[in-house]
């Protein structure tokens, strides 16, 4: 799953100014899934917006308050509600008076395998942004771009003044994102990727990993990577007797940190469900196989 990007070690709790309007503070929550940690972005110079406030960790909240330095916070925006992105929104709002704005709360309604533990059940936005809606402050304008796939409520935010896009977990600067059913949806993810390919953003600021200075090339490459994975899956399923997901993961993700294999299995399942909806594969007793033409 990991792509070959080189990323320098980044200090946590320090405001790094990336452009005239964009600052970044890294949260101290590194892991096999968050890489060096969640990157919280501060937008503006006098009146601020905060994108992806991150986990509710006291030292991270203290670092954000230091970086804000008493400046007014107009909006605290969340790209989605995984627990490494949104839990700090409420305490930061209480500390700064900023309103929580951005993605919708996420409620999973199905009875199948669920990933509730990964979501922030306490997220309560003051305002939900829909696709194309804008919010502005002194010197900046942010526009919401609906990008479902990683999660159904995922938003990216475009900074119009700098032609920049904050991509959350839809595109990361170190790895492909996990698409985990039932909420994660591969068909939605690919449609969202196509939207980004058709845009002219000059830079991506992901929530994990380095900024991306060749955004369309990366987006096209990630779409190609997913199509390659789909082809691998179909080839596996052409073998007599079909295949189970763990066996496919073992073959397809050789060399990948074994801690990521369960997440890889979820993305394989997302591909399989997409292929099933298109009439390409079927599942019987835990084994998947291609459908005869």
TrEMBL record:
Pfam families: Lactamase_B (PF00753), WHD_BLACT (PF17778). InterPro entries: LACTB2_WH, Metallo-B-lactamas, RibonucZ/Hydroxyglut_hydro, Sec-metab_biosynth-thioest, WH-like_DNA-bd_sf. It comes from the Bacteria. Residues 37-208 form the Metallo-beta-lactamase domain. This is MBL fold metallo-hydrolase. It comes from Sphingobium phenoxybenzoativorans.
């Amino acid at each position: 799953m990991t792509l070959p990007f080189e990323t320098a070690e980044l200090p946590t709790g320090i405001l790094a100014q990336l452009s005239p309007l964009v600052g970044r503070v890294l949260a101290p929550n590194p892991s096999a899934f968050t890489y060096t940690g969640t990157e919280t972005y501060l937008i503006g110079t006098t009146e601020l917006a905060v994108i992806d406030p991150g986990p509710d960790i006291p030292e991270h909240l203290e670092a954000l308050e230091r970086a804000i330095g008493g400046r007014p916070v107009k909006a605290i925006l969340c790209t989605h509600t995984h627990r490494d992105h949104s839990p700090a929104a409420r305490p930061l709002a209480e500390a700064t008076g900023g309103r929580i704005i951005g993605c919708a709360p996420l409620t999973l309604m199905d009875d199948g395998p669920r990933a509730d533990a990964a979501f922030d059940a306490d997220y309560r936005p003051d305002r939900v942004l829909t696709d194309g809606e804008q919010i502005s402050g002194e010197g900046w304008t942010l526009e919401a771009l609906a990008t479902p796939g990683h999660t159904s409520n995922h938003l990216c935010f475009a900074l119009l003044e700098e032609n920049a896009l904050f991509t959350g977990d839809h595109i990361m600067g170190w790895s492909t994102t996990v698409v985990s059913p039932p909420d994660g949806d591969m068909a939605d993810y690919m449609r969202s990727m196509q939207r980004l390919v058709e845009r002219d953003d000059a830079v991506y600021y992901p929530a994990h990993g380095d900024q991306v200075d060749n955004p369309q090339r990366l987006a096209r490459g990630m779409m190609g990577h997913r199509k390659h994975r789909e082809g691998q899956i179909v080839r596996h399923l052409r073998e007599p007797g079909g295949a189970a997901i763990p066996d496919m993961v073992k073959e397809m993700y050789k060399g990948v940190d074994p801690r990521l294999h369960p997440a890889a299995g979820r993305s394989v399942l997302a591909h399989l469900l997409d292929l099933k909806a298109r009439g390409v594969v079927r599942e019987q007793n835990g084994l998947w196989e291609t459908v005869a033409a």
